[in-house]
Amino acid sequence: MSLVRVLFYFLSFIAIASALYAASSKNLVRSIFVFFVTLFALAGLYVLALADFVAVTQVVIYVGGILVLILFAFMLSGKETLNILQQQQEKLFSLKKLPALLLAGVFFIVLINVVLKADVDNLQWVKDAISFKNEITPNAVMIDNIGINLMTRYLLPFEAISILLLMALIGAAHLSRKEGKV
Amino acid sequence: MISLTDFMVVSAALFCIGLYMVITKRNAIQILIGIELILNAAILNLVAFGKYDKVNNSGQIFALFAIVLAAATTAVALAIILNVYRRYKTIDPNDINKLRD
């Protein structure tokens, strides 16, 4: 087994285990902090998929932005919120969760079946990409190519997403203002 | 190197964990974390397939777009959750059953 494979199994184990812990944890704060670990492990998986720029963006936006936002919203919303949130103590495998567990498990089996049947490694366009040298190799520098593509081929989605981000931020600021000051 | 199937299996597992969180959690913030897990499973697939597109980089660029969209979603969702808490004094989705005041 090569070092890359060992790293892949290690990182995916960390990602899945921490996601499971976040799903099963009764404590909200602990579940948020374990989600940090999941996101970092996923960034490592992106690096193994040879997408280093996406990995860095994941760390900057997800870990630095989204999770800090969640933590701030949670910590700033007062002590009584914390107390109410902590009260929802439930057992991990209570009978009420059995249908959800069943649904998630069966859906997982279906997905695995689909993945194995689809045989994605032998798809025609993947083979074509390998034979035409259109495959990203570990020593290729992709960041300048991403920048050029972002400003030429994908300029329209880029601008659309910037407008959408602006709308979402104004909407969020409008929604979270204090009542009665209109 | 790592095959595409491996990435897809990991992504399927993450997706199902996120699905389980969305269904069972009785706390809007944990449901939000479940949604983020599902989004990350999708991004992992995008990135894994984007490896075979060196010229156009479609997979990686749309993964970046998905990350930005997730940021926008989270900001709005948290604002809504804070408002719901202010009005109902709870963020359990089971107890929120009115759209009007």
What is the number of domains of chain B? 1
DSSP E strands of chain A, number: 0
Q: State mean pLDDT of chain A (0 to 100 scale).
A: 85
Unreliable spans of chain A: none
Whole-angstrom Rg of chain B? 17 Å
User: So how many helices of chain B?
Assistant: 3
Outline type of chain B: elongated
Indicate the CATH architecture of the domain at 1-89 in chain A.
Up-down Bundle
State the CATH class of the domain at 1-89 in chain A.
Mainly Alpha
Number of helices of chain A: 8
Write out the CATH superfamily name of the domain at 1-89 in chain A. Answer: NADH-ubiquinone/plastoquinone oxidoreductase chain 6, subunit NuoJ
Structural class of chain A: mainly alpha
Helix proportion of chain A? over 70%
Biggest interface pair, counts: A-B, 86 and 74 residues
- The helix/strand order of chain A is HHHHHHHH
CATH architecture of chain B: Orthogonal Bundle
Q: DSSP strand (E) fraction of chain A?
A: under 5%
N- and C-termini, Cα separation of chain B? 57 Å
Radius of gyration of chain A: 21 Å
The major pleated sheet of chain B works out as: none
- Give unreliable regions of chain B as ranges: none
